Amino acid sequence: MRYLILSDIHGNWEALQAVLAHARSKYDRILCCGDLVGYGADPDAVTEWVRDNVASIVRGNHDKAAAGLEDLEWFNPVAKQSALWTQAAMKPENIAYLRDLTKGPEQVNGFQILHGSPLDEDEYVVTERDVEQLAPYLDSEVSFFGHTHLQGGFQCHRNGVVAFGGVDDDAQDRAVELETDVSYLINPGSVGQPRDGDWRAAYAVYQPETRLVTLYRAEYDVASAQKKILKAGLPELLAARLEAGV
Ligand SMILES: [Fe+2]
Q1: What is the CATH classification number for the domain harbouring 18?
Q2: Are 215 and 174 contacting, i.e. CB atoms less than 8 angstroms apart?
Q3: Distance from C-alpha of 105 to C-alpha of 109, rounded to nearest angstrom
Q4: Surface-to-core class of residue 100, CB atoms within 10 Å of its CB (0-12 exposed, 13-18 middle, 19+ buried)
């Protein structure tokens, strides 16, 4: 079984379509680490596609926000404005789908998917130190997470944690061969709003049988996604950041 791992699509239909075209014939089943909506202009289209195509999913903080399950007071002004726009724009049945999404971690065939950290779905896992504190609580040898929009991950050895990065700017993929006696926390990166300085849509494919994770980047039609954001009246910053990947 080959799993396509998606995270942080954020209503970016163009990025999602580019990922699906780029990943064609590389996977059998689709998983999602949350944040289907927020920031982007196509929350309904993305949510409907996820409803029809994703086998396992956990919710993200922006899914909770759109569904009215999150207090928006701690969101920054741009995120809050986009959450309110998303709530107003989406069809009731898609909002209901977001409201019913489950909190991670979710077990899948010997590994797990989650949004923030194994202990807190809203926590940002960024540094090796963050992971050192989480290592005792990792229930699975392999965990996929999102939330930070940073592609890459962490190897948890008995003696410490080692971080690894995502795909290089001049490449389209990076293979990560999983070692034995090591736990992994792996972020496929964000499909719809990368923040690691690479504007290309990010995703991963995992083959448990061969113990291989491949990280990918796919170019997409950023200009169309930006035009839709501006036409929707969403903050200009949300359009501008897409082409910089920040
Ligand atoms: Fe996100």
Answers
A1: 3.60.21.10
A2: yes
A3: 13
A4: exposed
Dmax (CA) for the chain in angstroms is 52
Dist. CA 158 → ligand 1 center (Å): 30
Place of tokens 């291989």: 212
- The pLDDT confidence band at residue 137, using thresholds 50, 70 and 90, is confident
Ranges assigned E (strand) in 29-129: 29-32, 56-57, 106-108, 111-113
**CA 180 to centroid of ligand 1, rounded, Å:** 30
Residue with tokens 């489950």: 102
pLDDT tops 90 at residue 140: no
107 CA distance to ligand 1 middle (Å): 21
Task: Summarize pLDDT for 48-82 with one digit per residue, the tens.
Answer: 999 999 999 999 999 999 999 988 888 899 999 99
Which residue segment(s) compose the domain that 54 sits in?
3-244
Please state, in angstroms and rounded to a whole number, the distance separating the CA atoms of residues 85 and 83.
Answer: 5
- The pair of three-digit structure tokens given for residue 245, joined into one six-digit string: 């990947």
- The answer to whether 246 and 197 are in contact (CB under 8 A) is yes
Q: Mean pLDDT across the stretch 140-168?
A: 95
Are 62 and 39 spatial neighbours (Cβ–Cβ below 8 Å)? yes
> How far does residue 41's CA lie from ligand 1's centre (Å)?
14
Look at the chain and report how many structural domains it folds into. 1
Tokens (6 digits) for 203 = 């995703």
